[in-house]
Amino acid sequence: MPDSSVANTTRRRVARPAAAASDGTVPTPTTSAPSGELDTRYLESLLGYNARRTALTVIAVFLQRMAPLGLRPVDFSVLTLIAHNPGVTSRQICATLDILPPNLVGMIKSLHKRGLIERRAHPSDRRAQGLHLSTVGTRLQAEAQQTASQLELDVAAGLDAGELQTLNQLLRKVYHP
Fold first, then answer.
1. What is the DSSP string of 104-167?
2. For the whole model, what pTM was predicted?
3. For the segment 66-114, what is each residue's pLDDT rounded down to a tens digit?
4. 157/168 Cα distance (integer angstroms)
5. Neighbours of 153 (CB within 10 A)
6. Domain segments of the chain: what residues?
């Protein structure tokens, strides 16, 4: 059962008619919806709609739980890439997270100013700097990773482990075919 912080951040569901048919078609409404109830069957048949609603739910919990650590989702992603790939370059991070280089520059500067990362000479490219977590950054990233793992379990409490694994595999097939 999800904890109260998850329940408090999710939106109240509105009663709705049955879902779309197995062939993906959605019946045309024959009567207007009673006050307060909307027919969302077509929207719920769309990958983008479901992905966005799921992302909004997960991000709301993420922001709440990471606030004490001072991390936004993109900060967490960058720190995690650095933690799992010591010496990674900014160029590699941009390519992996689909971030424009000018947007990453300020973020790296901020993480460095907070004492979370260190820049070191890259061993094979004199023009590049490798990024590494500092001791403080290593501790913060480990705590954030533990927090992220737990919040994933909490928000996906309605799925068993196999369903969650399948969902993640299917989603990766969409953005990384």
1. HHHHHHHHHHTTSEEEEE-SS-TT-EEEEE-HHHHHHHHHHHHHHHHHHHHHTTTS-HHHHHHH
2. 0.78
3. 999 999 999 999 999 999 999 999 999 999 999 999 999 999 999 999 9
4. 14
5. 14
6. 4-20+39-175
